[in-house]
Amino acid sequence: xxxxxxxxxxxxxxxxxxxxxxxxxxxxxxxxxxxxxxxxxxxxxxxxxxxxxxxxxxxxxxxxxxxxxxxxxxxxxxxxxxxxxxxxxxxxxxxxxxxxxxxxxxxxxxxxxxxxxxxxxxxxxxxxxxxxxxxxxxxxxxxxxxxxxxxxxxxxxxxxxxxxxxxxxxxxxxxxxxxxxxxxxxxxxxxxxxxxxxxxxxxxxxxxxxxxxxxxxxxxxxxxxxxxxxxxxxxxxx
Amino acid sequence: xxxxxxxxxxxxxxxxxxxxxxxxxxxxxxxxxxxxxxxxxxxxxxxxxxxxxxxxxxxxxxxxxxxxxxxxxxxxxxxxxxxxxxxxxxxxxxxxxxxxxxxxxxxxxxxxxxxxxxxxxxxxxxxxxxxxxxxxxxxxxxxxxxxxxxxxxxxxxxxxxxxxxxxxxxxxxxxxxxxxxxxxxxxxxxxxxxxxxxxxxxxxxxxxxxxxxxxxxxxxxxxxxxx
Amino acid sequence: xxxxxxxxxxxxxxxxxxxxxxxxxxxxxxxxxxxxxxxxxxxxxxxxxxxxxxxxxxxxxxxxxxxxxxxxxxxxxxxxxxxxxxxxxxxxxxxxxxxxxxxxxxxxxxxxxxxxxxxxxxxxxxxxxxxxxxxxxxxxxxxxx
Amino acid sequence: xxxxxxxxxxxxxxxxxxxxxxxxxxxxxxxxxxxxxxxxxxxxxxxxxxxxxxxxxxxxxxxxxxxxxxxxxxxxxxxxxxxxxxxxxxxxxxxxxxxxxxxxxxxxxxxxxxxxxxxxxxxxxxxxxxxxxxxxxxxxxxxxxxxxxxxxxxxxxxxxxxxxxxxxxxxxxxxxxxxxxxxxxxxxxxxxxxxxxxxxxxxxxxxxxxxxxxxx
Lengths: 238, 227, 145, 216
Description:
The complex is a heterotetramer. Helix content of chain B is 85%, strand content 0%. Chain B is an all-alpha fold. Chain B has one domain (3-226). Chain C has two domains: 1-34; 37-144, CATH 2.40.50.140. In chain C, strands 1-2-3-5-4 form a five-stranded mixed β-barrel. In chain C, 30% of the residues lie in helices and 26% in strands. The relative contact order of chain C is 0.13. Chain C is elongated and about 85 Å long. Mean pLDDT of chain C is 80; it is low at 141-145. Chain D is of the alpha/beta class. Chain D is built from eight helices and nine strands. Chain D has helices at 5-10, 54-62, 79-82, 84-87, 105-115, 123-129, 145-158, 175-190, and strands spanning 16-25, 28-38, 43-48, 69-74, 77-78, 90-93, 163-167, 194-198, 210-215. A five-stranded parallel sheet of chain D has the order 6-7-8-3-9, with helices on both faces. Chain D has a four-stranded antiparallel sheet with strand order 2-1-4-5. Chain D is globular, with a radius of gyration of 17 Å. The A-C interface holds A 38-43, 46-47, 50, 110-114, 117, 119-120, 172-176, 178-181, 184, 189-191, 193-194 and C 30, 34-37, 39, 57, 92-97, 101, 104, 119-135.
């Protein structure tokens, strides 16, 4: 897995299977969430936006951590694959963050009575979006892509301090945003019939991220290694 | 290389940076002028409603300080990068983080401190006085070094770019948000007559954290920029 | 120990001390009032601003919601189960606003101690369940924990 | 000026050992499998066309630039691990002089001393050897290009460094300046120092054996 040509061939093989699994998970998750799951005792059907909002919010944090960790690996051991995965994660993470903010806003208007509130959770999530945009902008601004990867990794590591703040903001401060539902240590405060579709969706989102990051990473890798032998062999085969 | 020589390198580098800034002068005058002008523009742009100005004063002064500090950031490393002093800094016999700290300290003394000195004047212009003014000065005193420390990371990341100006604001401003939030909320609360220990503690915590950690990514980013 | 090793140790020590100081200040900050909203107890104790706008959070007291006129004026009481503050609001309430529901409202105190809200936001909790389950829980509230 | 004898003899392989160095820029290989050794008293001149990677090689040897693969050892330890320990035994003169125009000549030399491992040589002696006597209080930006280059070379005298890495040290120096610089190099070598340098200038150092490395 360490060398780019290996990575390219291996991911090429598993991508179709991953896509199939992902489609399956999201389809059953959506069906379970939108059709099977009962309406909430308080929020009625409006709560169903949870099936997009919560997985994308989770992913916004998860992708950032993956990006920072891969960046650090690239920074320390100069592994090309890690560098490429780190930078390929950024636009996907930014999209998840954006989706979480938009769906949260759509949820907040009817329930809270406001599109947007400057509480700690929302503000820190917005900062996360800015961090992603900073990473993307910085990568685009530096010409040499290996140098750019190192720059991006440093920035991503600095921004990592924001992650615990986002996660714990609802516990540290009195926010309008409710506390965590599923990640509580004792037991999730969501009924099982509602939880299962949520977990399916979360799995589907994770796979979706995996698929898109692999596709992006493959493209990025080809572009970076365009002068190397294995890429020209690949092109000849076509 | 013992600790004495490290302390000597730190203080000499700090003094040299101050001397250079003193010989150029515009470096330290421009941010202050910018700060004063932006605050004035806010006052003019929102009209002369005293109550409105008063309620906006903490935010206006903090945002202007943020922008002034950000505009002056490039001077931390830009000229050193251009004349090759930066590579000599990285090749010195001392830990780069400590040298970075010396340069950031010099930058704060030259650009951050003057802001704090003129801030009372601007507060009076905006009608903020008494408790609120004292808290504002205190928050600026704790907060502006954080801006310099965190900003240094941004400059170090972009110093090798021909046009780093816009991208640096994209990198640095999100990281400035917590300082802005706690700084302004402290001033607002104290103007309303409440204790602000919480906000001040938070700012102090941020400062200690930035002092401890910010030089590390800055040094790493400088190495990256020179490679 | 080699001087360079010693120097590195000092630097790491300095960093650890600074981080400890940061943690100390941070903990202190969390013990202070850094909240998005004030609770009724704090308002009654006079900890909230007299003149400035602030946020008040609490539970709508059961049976306290009144609509005195045929306009949009609503009166209700907010509690944190210790103290009660009366609130007046003119405007459209969010869907989730109901008795027993947690809300956050933004406004200022009138001289008679009534909180005049400019905005009312409903705070929903992190519990999601079907209505039947909620009903059965209500019958046996001790099961909730 | 150099570390005394017994200390050096304890080390197994004192000096610089480079093996399997690979460097590429923008996906193009500059050099591959580059290996050489540099011992006390040796001079290595790196030659090659423009863009053949001479400067890149020198910057890699300094530890500023990252190599794709390969190792650089100083006294048997990788330079990345040594960090400041390596840098205090090394001096680098790059394309840029690395002097501050707003500081005086004396202030620049003082700063260079503080940043490195200062030598016992006093300011007047350094200035005299570089033919900059009387310029102590002059701002560096008022110097001519050749004088600035000589001021940059003062770093070699102001600090104690076993290894000198010089990128085109003769740039903008006049005949006299080149002679001064050549004297510096040969005296460094006879005292057991090491020099890696690039130069377009044909070097003649009496009594010094020059190893040449061609990058293509």
